[in-house]
């Protein structure tokens, strides 16, 4: 494999993990990132056992685990704060080898960046055009032109690679809800386990980060593009400030500038993740509702699977075909599953909300764990 070249378009989690995996296999890697630096804004990220297994494949699981926090338990509560279901993280670790670990996105990004030579990374470079010549791919970007054996499109929901090489692909679709993400200042007095509270057309969740901080996230059913009349910090406090403890205390420990908001989109399925010597992964291939916490996890799976496929065949086309057959059915299935759960969690009509909460409360914890096994039990 020595001497092969790859251009990774997109310097997020999936793109950097792909670069690390291929660099360690002897590929000459260039990562193009349109932002001015390789960094992630302040938010948390849940890494489930399948993601930790993917990180282990590139030698970073132990390091990332040390950067994160593991809670003993969590689960779902109703609008009044009553538990509907509980999650035993110890049992997840027993069944799947790793507990669910929460990290700051910036810490994960830093670990990936530091695993690469600095000359692999080109920030402030935006892809403008490209062509596949059959034996190589040429990419024109804001800093010049590059030629490689393979191009990986890891440039997110609004992927330039997908738009250029998949002009027939459908546009991302709004799932009907907007999301806020935020991280608190240290809070010694909040001792409760993490949870997601389901309301009527709204939900609020939180989980621990290292240093007594909490990662909080919230969603509400709103029209796409709706903006707060004053600030997103004020908007989220108005909407959730009277929810059960510890939500008021968490919101009081959030600074105004730390509240991030984005509308939630997923991606209609594409017929293939591969066009010639160009391949999609992560959100560029299968953006999904974040309700299952699998977006970044699936991008990490993509990255190490692509590297493994390329490692087993000298024929790039054959390797990419194997990647597509492996990843497309799995990820598109998880997109559909996330869409169903996201819609259920956003129900707002009181009678169906009552039925949803009752059904969740009556579902045994073992049944919930079994239902997640196909997702969490992934092996490379």
UniProtKB/TrEMBL annotation:
<keyword id="KW-0503">Monooxygenase</keyword>
<dbReference type="InterPro" id="IPR002938">
    <property type="entry name" value="FAD-bd"/>
</dbReference>
<protein>
    <submittedName>
        <fullName>2-polyprenyl-6-methoxyphenol hydroxylase</fullName>
    </submittedName>
</protein>
<feature type="domain" description="FAD-binding">
    <location>
        <begin position="5"/>
        <end position="338"/>
    </location>
</feature>
<dbReference type="InterPro" id="IPR036188">
    <property type="entry name" value="FAD/NAD-bd_sf"/>
</dbReference>
<dbReference type="Pfam" id="PF01494">
    <property type="entry name" value="FAD_binding_3"/>
</dbReference>
<dbReference type="GO" id="GO:0071949">
    <property type="term" value="F:FAD binding"/>
</dbReference>
<keyword id="KW-0560">Oxidoreductase</keyword>
<dbReference type="InterPro" id="IPR050493">
    <property type="entry name" value="FAD-dep_Monooxygenase_BioMet"/>
</dbReference>
<keyword id="KW-0285">Flavoprotein</keyword>
<keyword id="KW-0274">FAD</keyword>
<dbReference type="GO" id="GO:0004497">
    <property type="term" value="F:monooxygenase activity"/>
</dbReference>
